[in-house]
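User: I'm writing a short methods note and want a consistent example. For Raffinose/stachyose/melibiose transport system substrate-binding protein, I'll paste the sequence; you return only the structure tokens, no commentary, since I'll be parsing the reply automatically.
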Amino acid sequence: MKRFSGLPMLGAASLLATLFASTAFADVTVHVLRPEVPNTEKAYHQKMVADFEKSHPGVDIAFEYIANEAYKQKLTTLLQSDQKPDLIFSWAGGVLTQQAKAGVLQDISASVTSDWSASIANAGLSAFTVDGKVYGMPVNASDVVFWTNLDLAKKAGVDPESIKTWDDFLTAVKKAQAAGITPIMVGGKDKWPLHFYYGYLWVREAGKDGMAAAMGGEGDGFASASFVKAGEDFKKLVDLQPFEPGFMDTTFEQATGQFGDGKALFHLMGDWEYGTEKQNSVSGKGIPDDKLGTISFPAVAGGAGEATDTFGGINGYAVIAGAPPEAVEFLKYMTDAENQKLAGAQGLFIPIAKGVEGSIANPFFRKMSEALAVSKFHQIFLDQALGSDVGATVTDVAADLAQGVVTPEAAAKTVQDAWSMR
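Assistant:
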């Protein structure tokens, strides 16, 4: 049985105690590692585990969770050790490709039966396929939107539904400031929340073709005019000083809790915000549903991207090389239509299995699902899509732009230089 013994890179002896408390006597243990989720989603996992173990005697499934940023930072080291889990949460993209080509993932193509592949949306299956080989499966899609405190919007004289363009959004920021309201909460310390702004503006300015051209090495790549313009758009926002004081010392977890406490008008975040802003708030309840809203990222005048283009993730689990067959079986079980419907009904995430859209009870998720359905271009998070090294450069550059310590031109050139040297 594969062990996690001695996990210094995870920095928690208690993690081991929890991990093995119920697994020591199993014939086969499948270790699943993923970033933290709200307790409601953990309960969903626990039910799946109990049901699966009941129908698979001798198999034990052990979920373990670590903070989002720590997960990203430590996963590479973990996968190079002899303490590897069997299934890891993945945002797909270039990072998954790197892992596959490095040999740390297991090709499960032979196990992906026609009925299994047919049950998954094509875009989802493609996201976990590298050079024709399948290394994992998607579980959910995610869409990044501006979560909005409707009470604060009313106080500021802002009509969220009227925000259609970037200039409209900048006007809303100014109105919030005039009303003594912090316009935007952001977890700048983790950097990736800031890259949501920069990345979405890339999508709006460059569009699908521009993104493909840059990744294909055409012209000036990520240093071309569209990407410089995206930086200039971001700078217009940054120059307004829209974020909470000390935003570069605020983590994602803190930011989402403070948004849930009603301390800012907007928070640009994915669908997971719904659960985390409630759980991380002081009250544990967050903003009531009837006081919470979402708006799509605004269009940019003159940009090549379409207003319906989306930015987010296609998220799931990759199978680690050497994982037992039971790991693949459990992955198949996680993508089962009934489990996907249950997640949709409980408002945990946006399920990706075909034919389960009607199960989405959460009105915010249903709205996002509808947006994803009409989107002709869905850009995966840049810190995943571009690979770990270039992705880290993008998040660093986004943080530098947010602090006003780099110009849009220099930012674009830095990304292009990193892409050229990858």
